[in-house]
């Protein structure tokens, strides 16, 4: 595993030649002229893009929250509007949106940027939106041991917009609720109202 700050998918880099060959073959099989100027470098570009958009395989998302601070703030902390881009595991088509994370620390707070890094680590791979949502909540619970966590994710799935059912603009909303948020309706309401602002 490489460090959690700047990472690319090393397996893609190791297999670069084979991946490029396969992409070239797919281009040929869909009826393209693989030797035309605009496409000559496309297999290499796509492979470099895979190193980036599939970088999540390179990191254990738990390591991202390795840096924490002891702090007695046992009140709501929210980081909202964390933009993510992921790839749906059914079609390998992009989906993207925002993640909102709220938690009540229990003696341990995370660096704020680490929550955004956690989103990166969980989304930069083949995913479904539900799993992104619950993985973020579960990893927060496991590593920070807070009183509770609530995560909301919205997503626009290109596999539903540009193909198939073709419903551009439709948004999928998912939430995960853990610990004190489960029992406390007022806390959930406070989180939701601050996320909406
Ligand atoms: N639950 C969930 N479903 C997703 C997500 N991303 C894509 N899908 C769905 O995965 C399903 C795959 O369905 P299939 O019937 O196997 O594939 P398909 O024939 O291409 O389906 P259509 O998209 O309806 O044309 C579709 O309904 C997609 O909308 C996600 O993040 N969560
Ligand atoms: Zn899809």
TrEMBL record:
Pathway(s) where this gene product acts: Cofactor biosynthesis; 7,8-dihydroneopterin triphosphate biosynthesis; 7,8-dihydroneopterin triphosphate from GTP: step 1/1
Record-listed Zn(2+) binding positions: 88, 91, 159
GTP cyclohydrolase I domain segment(s): 19-195
Entry superkingdom: Bacteria
GO molecular function, one term: GTP cyclohydrolase I activity
Keyword tags: GTP-binding, Hydrolase, Metal-binding, Nucleotide-binding, One-carbon metabolism, Zinc
Gene3D superfamilies linked to this entry: 1.10.286.10, 3.30.1130.10
Xref: InterPro entries: GTP-CH-I_C/QueF, GTP-CH-I_N, GTP_CycHdrlase_I, GTP_CycHdrlase_I_CS, GTP_CycHdrlase_I_dom
EC number from the UniProt entry: 3.5.4.16
Enzymatic reactions: GTP + H2O = 7,8-dihydroneopterin 3'-triphosphate + formate + H(+)
Enzyme class (EC, first level): hydrolase
Subunit relationships: Homopolymer.
Family matches, as NCBIfam families: folE (TIGR00063), PRK09347.1-2 (NF006825), PRK09347.1-3 (NF006826)
Family from the record: Belongs to the GTP cyclohydrolase I family.
Descriptive protein name: GTP cyclohydrolase 1
Organism per entry: Marinicrinis lubricantis
